[in-house]
# Entry
Amino acid sequence: MIGGGYAADVGALARKDLLLELRAKETLPSMLLFVIAALTIFHFALPHGTSHAAALGLLWAALIFTALLGLTRAFVAEREQGMFDALVLAPCDRSAIWLGKALAVLAFLVAAEVVALPAFAAFFSGLDGRTVAAVALADVGIATVGTLFGAMAVAGRARELLLPLLFLPMAIPIVVGGVGGYLWFLALYDAIFAVLSWAAFEYVVSET
Amino acid sequence: MHLSLPALALACTGLIGLALGLIFFYAPTDGDQGFSQRIFYFHVPIALTSYVCFGWGAWKALRYLRKRDERADLESYVAIHQGVMFGALTLVTGSIWAKASWGVWWSWSENQLVLFLVLFLFYCAYFMLRFSVEPGPARANMCAVYALFGVVLIPVSFLAIRLSQKFIHPVVFNAHGPQMTGSQFFVFCVSLAGVLALFATLYQVELAGKRLDAHVRELRELLT
Amino acid sequence: MIRARGLAKRYGDRRVFAGIDLDLAAGGFLLVTGPNGSGKTTLLRVLAGLAAQTAGELRLPERRLVGYLGHEPLVYRELSPLENLTLFGRLYRIPERAERVGMLLERFGLWDVRHERVSTFSRGMQQRLGLSRVLLHEPSLLVLDEPYNALDRQGAELLDGVFEEHVFGEPRTWVVATHEPQRVERLATERLAFA
# Structure
């Protein structure tokens, strides 16, 4: 099932998403503006002389909500143009659709964080390597689980409302691992839920 | 779970009545926490039953995904519905216990309570998902996948919550088995059996109601 | 190609159709007619393998041999025709993809606009692109839901030509739902009318 062909499918699908974003320029600019605006709000929300730990906690909140913004948009093209039908009928393994989308989401997240993390370091109290590593690991978990739940949420009537409700409880362990800097825990989370999402995606997009 | 409903209901009533009697008149008063510790005999069995509900719901979800049996979808939904109700009760009893023991309604250092808050949020979203998607196999698939994520989230969240704080919740079970006296353990077991029987009864009642409802609608559809 | 016995579909408690028996041989043409909301689309989705039947038996060809055109043209609006067809050409692992894509774009009158975004196209042009996407992988079972609906005159004539063209190898099998049965009446080998 997994071989060169699978990788080619994933590559073609991920490239399609990056190309769509390049044309539409909607998701990434919104994520960037959102995360900077959120960090600015946090500056005013935190009392003067706040500890590094408090600021770091808010960074994680900002990252999760920024990711949510991107995830809400992830399947908009597929949903509005009925593309799930075309993709599901294609002979590729359905999990390739998930992996391609998750990679695209991951790329947007990383792009947003390339701006957000230096901005955080400048606005607040600097950054250490452990936090950067934790963010990188957390991105994998967010992209894998978020893509699966994003595909579920677009099937519902209240899709923009549904995704945060589905996803945020799943994000709580990510925040714990991230704020605490438990890299092994984040890696464990990624491994468990990436495998589960990979196996489950087929059921989410196809009835048959 | 193939007992007849009246027998189940009777057993449930008997067990819960017995448990109530034992809790208030037989169980020894705790040296540390006094009378209020007796809520333990409700709180913990209800919490454990809630896990059983979520586990049962996930098992039925797995069966749905493998067998495509519509009944398994309904059973999974009903089990999770019961789980959320027992979960809400866990939050309420835990909150009361926290108030009695520590004088606060909510304590973030109580892992069990925090975990139930996370699970409560997660499983409430299950209903949002279920009620916002058109009924049919696609919805059943999604609900099943979500239910399976739930049972995996339980240990992951538990680990996360343990990592996030010092462990100060009174430890009832540890590696050496229950730290309860024989009489306490007996009352606990009766109470657990009672709450589990309550779950089984409610599960059967709700399932019967939902099935009847579906039959009636099918008949009406056939008549038109 | 398709064999169905006692096919039924329900959504929750709502029955869409029930008791459909169907035998469609290779090269056959099933014409599905009926008013809007009568279940045509749902049946076509079941026959394309996109939706599961609630009851009954159904035998379909494997997924890669099916081409489906729904109410939407099923192409990415922010991509160009060339990019759309190339994407699906990759997923279907079509040999000599560039030639095949170029040939289809030429045939459906989209070669000159192959680099432009689909969102700037008229509905008729989009539907023509949708048709070329369906034909791209040479499916042996084609399921078309109201294909004439959005087509312009040029597209409709192209579609008429596609229905009648001779292909090498296995003949194409069609399942077509339409409001305009007179256009394809003479091709139909099987008929299914929804009330």
Observations:
- The first helix of chain B runs from residue 5 to 25.
- Chain B has one domain: 37-169+177-223.
- Residues 37-169+177-223 of chain B form one domain.
- The helical segments of chain B are 5-25, 40-67, 70-102, 111-132, 137-164, 182-223.
